[in-house]
Amino acid sequence: MKSVAPKKHLGQHFLTAPDIARKIADTLKFDTFKRVLEIGPGTGVLTQFLLHKTEDLTVVEVDTESIVYLENHYPQLKKRILQQDFLKMDIKAIFQNHPLAIIGNFPYNISTQIVFKVLEHRHQIPFFSGMFQKEVAERICETAGSKKYGILSVLCQVFYNTNYCFTVKPGVFHPPPKVDSGVITLSRKTDFELSCDEALLFKVVKTSFQQRRKTLRNSLKSLALPKNLTEDSIFDQRPEKLTGTAFIALTQKIENGSFSN
Q: What is the pLDDT of residues 171-186, one digit of tens each?
């Protein structure tokens, strides 16, 4: 079958600059894992450098043309190409309980969903690296007090140490996007145990930022919290002012009070 360069799919912009791909691959730090999963390899511009980094590389790709291209140009990958949607992939079933890093040039329109799936499987994913739309990359790494600080910022920073690595201009993609991109890394925190209910934490953070301009007392009204609890001074704050640690403390207060669904 003839090998042709795949078309743009799922909102993906294919990286064409090997020097940028090498820099992304170089963000990998193999101190807690040896397996690597690349999401959306496309034409393999990043894949070629990952193959030099690890002998245990798997790629997940939904596009048939991309898979044919990869099989023809990287024959060593043939048994390690998964034709699946990463968002529907059963990570535990495929990789058992083995830790793995996830890396990629992520399609803009599913990048946030990719991050939430990583958070869901964080016990198996000690390291995450990749390229996002710059605005999303900055939001993940933003600190409390900023207008960019939000749900992704809090939840990523609760479980991972975040780092904004570098900015990538549109001209190194085909087709070029209309915005800059940003490369970030997430390194899972060591010796960290969440000291509150996880589902409740996610609910508190998401509900708080749905009305981010209001104080927590008002933005969390839908949780039907008891009045004596909301008199606590923490409820005078707006959500963007609270660090991940403060959100954990807030969740503990709610969890220990007469919280009702």
A: 999 899 999 999 999 9
